[in-house]
Amino acid sequence: MADQTHRQLHLGAILEGVGANQSSWLDPDLPGDASIDIGWYIDQARLAETAAFDLVFIVDSPYITPDTAPHFLNRLEPLTLLSAVAASTSRIGLVGTLTTSYWEPYNVARQFGSLDHISHGRAGWNVVTTGLEGAARNYGRTEHFDHGVRYARAREFVDVVQGLWDSYEDDAFPRDRASGIFLDKAKQHRLDHKGAHFSVAGPLALSRSRQGQPVIFQAGDSDEGRKLGAQVAEGIFTIGADFDSARAYYADLKARATAIGRDPDHIKILAGLTPIIADSDEEARAIDAAGRGALDLGKLLVQLGRAFNYHDFAQYGLDEPFPDLSGVTLNSYKGQAERIIRTARDESLTLRQAAYRFGDWRSQFIGSPETVANEIERWFREGAVDGFLLQVTRPEPFRRFREDVVPILQARGLFRTEYAHDTLRGHLGLSVPENRHGAILPSPAAVAAE
Amino acid sequence: MADQTHRQLHLGAILEGVGANQSSWLDPDLPGDASIDIGWYIDQARLAETAAFDLVFIVDSPYITPDTAPHFLNRLEPLTLLSAVAASTSRIGLVGTLTTSYWEPYNVARQFGSLDHISHGRAGWNVVTTGLEGAARNYGRTEHFDHGVRYARAREFVDVVQGLWDSYEDDAFPRDRASGIFLDKAKQHRLDHKGAHFSVAGPLALSRSRQGQPVIFQAGDSDEGRKLGAQVAEGIFTIGADFDSARAYYADLKARATAIGRDPDHIKILAGLTPIIADSDEEARAIDAAGRGALDLGKLLVQLGRAFNYHDFAQYGLDEPFPDLSGVTLNSYKGQAERIIRTARDESLTLRQAAYRFGDWRSQFIGSPETVANEIERWFREGAVDGFLLQVTRPEPFRRFREDVVPILQARGLFRTEYAHDTLRGHLGLSVPENRHGAILPSPAAVAAE
């Protein structure tokens, strides 16, 4: 394990426009068109950069219905969004979500590779397999890939993309006007991949960036998802529902990585964070209660159904025990769906209770800035996380976190006061991956722990 | 036809890093890494915007070999590039090339639709079908689609993308906090397209932009290419090899559009332009001769072969007549290849002559600023073009064009001195397309001729 004295917390901001839940957009401080306003995203990214956050993070899904949560109904696509943010920031990492189920590896390698150049080494790709079955019909298929097939494809897809990113050795371009040699042709490499799911010849028309390759993120929670994460992820986005489940997840992922020969410190596990911060713990709890009281139960049931491919929960009695779903195939957000079923059973929840628990992003950290900072420190020191991804939608909670909580974390030596690096790998303490065709620029300096 | 007194010339800048030919990169004023340097692109786009150009234009091709021209070997991908440029400019149009042969319509609709929002209505998509057969092997196929199939797919692909862009009526989002209504669900529309090549359900998670939809560009020269252009294009990029062939192309395209019921003024035909500008005509001709004398014949043969799917021309005698290629299938840049064969036959060119003529971008306009402006005016007034796309690689020729030629065109009333609009449709005098589900924002003001 890393030296615990110098181990640093990592913080990211999930920029989500008007919010992936059903209620955030009601905040009058939040512009109703935030999800399609690039100026809004740039402003939030700059605020996160001012606070020296490691990265901003963009979630995604290529399927909607009329009942989808407001942000997902009408929003900017992650790659184009992040390229515009790249041109308007200078240090903060830029992580975008993109599915391996409905893209071509060659196009993905080009676009994330380009984002990595445009941002001068700040790009990351959050690898997902797409949960919602309806996505298939946007891509010429009548049926979504089975869960297992999706993960097998994802693994091969990532291998192909990483192979394409190494198409050129780092000194492949002498660009020597005197001799007329632009490219050293021996240092351009075809991939010639032929696998179970993809055949890609290459080479990619793009050299490596300052950080070598974009950072691979992953967010799966099912057994297959965890296996893929342990194999390929350098960053993990996990839901972090509560301390015990987060610690169990953390231990499991790090053990899986160790078991296959990886350094567990090279996978940074970041939990979602939606704190409710007020001047006192009492006030924060009152805000939480009022907010939960104002939620629309019908919308919560829709949102709850999302993990089950928009299963219709309105058909069940609200105050009956959480329904038996053993007949429902879990081919969407399988890990999340399994967790909901398990929790509902273990805690004997009614459907109403489950809707309030899982139908809106639930805050784990509620209290004064000191209380929230204490919880963050506990999770970080006691093996539940390497950091957090703060859900950024409403302006005031983001302001309080930056202005009231971050300074406490900094004063305790847990979080940087200014950037020590200018690549995403630098911020996360990840090394530059060796070029498989020969590394001549290992740049160990860029890798030193902060 | 449009009122000829007020008819305005359109100017675009093809931003091509170190250049799509084999020689531009040798210019010491041009950074060797221009093709992967977003700062270089942003600088050139801002210079073009300062000169009130209609648009910048990014060409593309998803296949390379070690012999590919320097720019194509290692370059930024068009969508990510243009999103970064969008965030760094405010008025100029942004047109990117993307192939319909190896992408998914749903992803293309999302990315160009997002670029259109990010740029506040300045996006354009140059629809191509991919010329080089090797591209197939980057996308899991052993063979490239046949020329005819490529164009049939392209037509259907564009229809699907435009259908997805109209997923929402323009007033679909009341975002009314009092009633809690974010979306008027009746104004979200599925596409449910099932065609010969694509099945796409929709809806797209994106509303229309200020200009309604991105502008469709196209660049085909073959019969199939011209047919597609007449059907779907709002802008055409044509090579413009000489006045007579440009005028014939112009007349043909406008007649094809008229024949199928379109207003020929709603297709703007822009020819490629690589002028050689000097203080006098004699000096310009001397620069041209010196430049051509310095070309590497071996590289010219490779470049000549590109239109023929990298056919190996080194096997033939240089001073023999241009070889008989009747046994070679023209499935790459078919229109271009046909033009080379036709010209070589009509003018009895040797292979050496053909290599010099077609193996490097040949300048049609050589002379003093006055001479170049005269030629531009002649082509524009005498029915050869609606405007030009200036090839922007080496800084000094771009500077001379902006500082010495553009002012002459402005003094003659041919080209704007400042922007009258802030969308690409506005610059090009194109109307906002009606939303197929009901137009409530026709915004005729945005469409007035400049």
TrEMBL record, chains A, B:
<dbReference type="InterPro" id="IPR016215">
    <property type="entry name" value="NTA_MOA"/>
</dbReference>
<protein>
    <submittedName>
        <fullName>FMN-dependent oxidoreductase (Nitrilotriacetate monooxygenase family)</fullName>
    </submittedName>
</protein>
<keyword id="KW-0560">Oxidoreductase</keyword>
<feature type="domain" description="Luciferase-like">
    <location>
        <begin position="37"/>
        <end position="384"/>
    </location>
</feature>
<keyword id="KW-0285">Flavoprotein</keyword>
<dbReference type="InterPro" id="IPR036661">
    <property type="entry name" value="Luciferase-like_sf"/>
</dbReference>
<feature type="binding site">
    <location>
        <position position="222"/>
    </location>
    <ligand>
        <name>FMN</name>
    </ligand>
</feature>
<feature type="binding site">
    <location>
        <position position="60"/>
    </location>
    <ligand>
        <name>FMN</name>
    </ligand>
</feature>
<feature type="binding site">
    <location>
        <position position="147"/>
    </location>
    <ligand>
        <name>FMN</name>
    </ligand>
</feature>
<dbReference type="Pfam" id="PF00296">
    <property type="entry name" value="Bac_luciferase"/>
</dbReference>
<keyword id="KW-0288">FMN</keyword>
<dbReference type="GO" id="GO:0016705">
    <property type="term" value="F:oxidoreductase activity, acting on paired donors, with incorporation or reduction of molecular oxygen"/>
</dbReference>
<feature type="binding site">
    <location>
        <position position="151"/>
    </location>
    <ligand>
        <name>FMN</name>
    </ligand>
</feature>
<dbReference type="InterPro" id="IPR011251">
    <property type="entry name" value="Luciferase-like_dom"/>
</dbReference>
<dbReference type="InterPro" id="IPR051260">
    <property type="entry name" value="Diverse_substr_monoxygenases"/>
</dbReference>
<dbReference type="GO" id="GO:0004497">
    <property type="term" value="F:monooxygenase activity"/>
</dbReference>
<comment type="similarity">
    <text>Belongs to the NtaA/SnaA/DszA monooxygenase family.</text>
</comment>
<feature type="binding site">
    <location>
        <position position="97"/>
    </location>
    <ligand>
        <name>FMN</name>
    </ligand>
</feature>
<keyword id="KW-0503">Monooxygenase</keyword>
